[in-house]
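Archive entry: two folds, one per protein. Generate the first.
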Amino acid sequence: MNTNEKYILRCLELAKNGLPSSMPNPSVGAVIVYNGTIIGEGFTSKYGGNHAEVNAINSVKDKSLLLKSTIYVSLEPCSHFGKTPPCCDLIIQYKIPKVVIGLVDSNKKVAGQGIKRLIENRIEVIVGVLEHECKMSNKRFFTFHEKNRPYIILKWAQTVDGFIAPLRNQNTNRAPFWITNELSRQLVHKWRSEEQAILVGTQTVIDDNPSLTTRDWNGKNPVRIVLDQNNKISKESHIFDNQAKTIILNSDTINFSKNIAYQISELLLKENIQSVIIEGGSKTLQTFIDENLWDEARVFIGKTVLEFGIKAPILKYNNCDKRTILNDELLTIYNYD
């Protein structure tokens, strides 16, 4: 590993601290190095706050050292006015002589203009250090801007014999049927806190009456998106409480006869929602799989055996990451180009 890679890796570690509060902005990490020593660090603040470069520069106690320092950033510094002034201007103001950038920002508001501005001011610029890793650190942001849709995560739990739930009848109480252990369920609540929205179908709400919040994790609740074509869901359901914003999609909102997944993606794009975790039933999940509109699938396999019930979605894949959470197995499958 060379020096540039070493400090860009540190930038990526810092950038994790900015998610999800920085969204819809990307979360960037910045490191300032003088004579082989880190003298300043920063990551992107909550949306509307300082960018990573500003926080890193502000953290440097002796600003005179900036004249002989290098600033490392995981993503190209911005050159336009948004919620905050351009980061390029601050770098130029403090006459930092060298900037090492992990990845060019594909957002049309930046798209190389930041690099161009730095070079025009006689600053040495190195671009393209750990590009893949830098892109993955802001996969939601890049998917949103490059594919014009949110980053889509499919999530479900299934039994060893391939069922996601038992068959329901009218006499069944509205309560979830747990396939996974408590630690796995807490992890799901952590995931919810990391995404901007969560989506389920009508039957999931009718059967389980979920709150779709982060009640088992200290984090912000996602926006709740619910498919309810014929307005069957009771107004007494938990999704109508005031814990989080809820958007109901019915026959007045989208056309349920065609390309539901695409219509949902377009709607979330208009809402400026960059990521969604889909925890719906088998039918809802299969819709996104069949239309190949997904980026990750996170599948829990519990030790429960049902013998009959509602079949789990069918997803074909070659490779996946596997981990064990107590007695559950977690598969993470990626659908990257």
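Generate the second and append.
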Amino acid sequence: MSIRLIIVDDDPLVRTGLTFMLGGADDIEIVGEAADGAEVPALIERTAPDVVLMDIRMPGVDGLTATETLRRRPGAPEVLILTTFHADEQVLRAMRAGAAGFVLKDTPPAEIVAAVRRVAAGDPVLSPAVTRQLMTHVAGATTGTRRDTASDRLGSLAEREREVALAVGRGQSNAEIAAGLYMSVPTVKAHVSRILAKLGLNNRVQIALLVHDADPATEAEGARNGDVR
């Protein structure tokens, strides 16, 4: 089965380049393009994509607003943000809205193709290095109210689920979490699924953001110092 993809960017040259690049992959089918976030809902109705590659800065309806609207829809496609910045407030808001990750516009073509495949498979595109950048940004922006709310939500998890959530917050893969917590990868996946269901979240990126909202410094630091078993 091919991955059905739509590209949303206000620059026609960027759209053309991405279409040429991604359309050359045997397993990716470009089913639509849009130049404005306002065009996205109708385009999705017509094309039923699996993934939306979304520019974040566009005139009219920007990619952030379009992502927030899109991810509230039942059965919404995954959103992969296309941006020129590693970590700014708009990227963070897109992650909170349920975007599965982001790629920079100067990312090598092969990596963009791989990112689309990963998102289509349900895996977030957010490397540990980029996660650390984002969380540093979060640490400076977290308010007391947000911290208290996030702590209460994490407190609703069972102990083992919370350990897994902390590990996700450090940007660890399922295999790394399994090794660190002495459990199987399928067990880690089951815990992640339960965490998402309990907390009403879309993906692992939102788990990581919630962990760092709860305590940007000590949640992750405590886990690094051996509190996660």
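Annotation attached to the second fold: DSSP finds twelve helices and five strands in the chain. The beta strands are 3-8, 28-34, 51-55, 78-83, 101-104.
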